[in-house]
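At this stage, I needed to go through a protein sequence along with its fold in token form, as given directly below:
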Amino acid sequence: MNRTVRRTLIPVAAAAVVGGIVTTLIVGNGSGAVVANDGGPATPAADTVSVNGVGLVTGAPDVLRLSMGVQTTGSTVNTALNQANEDITKITEALKKHGVADKDVQTSGLSINPHWDQNSNSHITGYDVSESMTVQLRKLTDAGSAISDAAAAGGNDTRIDGVSFDIEDNTALLNQARDAAFADAKAKAEEYAKLAGRSLGKVSQVSETTDTAPRPIPFTAAPMAASGMAEKAVPVSPGSQQVSVNTSVVWALN
């Protein structure tokens, strides 16, 4: 007869990552049978221990992603659209002066909406046009000036939705986080095996989840004159960013 012991630890916070750590220890008669739960996913086989491990590594961001655009109003669609196109062209030219390559500027949105007469829903008085773009700024020491000059180029039509930092090449950091996550899982598994009077055997299953997504930072640009550049650069502080790997490993028990 199989005997199952399941322990769930209280979720804990690790820096910016919060998660639960669940450990399952299944000790049986060595048959290795898999038990299903009412049609749900199968539980680990008998004589195994399943543990989650977390690895956190901190790195310095090397890319700033800027989400910005323009919003214009005109009596006709063409009037509003032409003005928006002109603003976007000026913004793109300003960014190129800071060394931003064409591949790092991407159109991300376009919308045209009518203005209705407040006294009559059947009469259009004008049109709003919004154009948005996503820009990758790779030279962080110059990113503040690039943002200010781009905002100034679009003038009072400029809209900035937010910025986010990212680590473009995080391969090395992910490998370090995997090593740390596996070591964390193994240490826990060895402790549970010891408590059960057993020892760890071979690994039978490994799975992982990662968290490296950049987090947007809201930013609102103050109105700037359409002519000339901004007087001061936007303060930019990249700080640091964590790469997180959560590894689930199943060991056989000797």
Residues 19 and 184 are 14 Å apart (CA to CA). The first strand starts at residue 3 and ends at 8. Residues 171-195 form the longest helix (25 residues). The helical segments are 77-96, 143-154, 171-195.
